[in-house]
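REQUEST FORM: STRUCTURE PREDICTION
Request ID: SP-0412
Submitted by: Lab K.M.
Chain count: 1
Length (residues): 164
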Amino acid sequence: MPETMINKVTSYLDSIGVSYELLRHEAVVTTEESARVIHVDGCMSCKSLYVKDKKSDNFYLVVLPADKRANMRGLASYVGCAKFEFATEDKLFEDLQVHRGSVSPFAFLNEREGYSVPLLIDQQVWNAPKVKFHPCDNTATVVLSSNGLRNFLESIRKRVIVVK
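STATUS: Completed
RESULT:
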């Protein structure tokens, strides 16, 4: 399955004309491992978190710089919630068909029809010249411009909320 996700992501990016670089590497799960294994000059390392509103069944994908701590209350305030908590591994797989350590905005390609999780993306990531994410497989990394990321998100009609 993972190799098919790499192909799904790169084929989709090709189909919408987004330039990218695909890097293959050993499996990495944490941002620390990723920083050690994958270095691209001038590129923002990112982490993606699948969270839910503590009081409802509303889910969100949060993208932050790899070295930024997630403020669950502060992030939740952007969507009128009191606090976020991490979604379960089962819910992550049910909604986006990925496992922890492989989640990224590219997982939106796996959303079922009629289901659309909003994206909360840190302003530093949104404004970075280049960003990198797993193509839903932690043995590869896709490097693309922030404009390429924006084009991807626009092509799938993703609701994007830029956070500080």
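NOTES: The chain has a mean pLDDT of 92.
Reviewed by: T.R.
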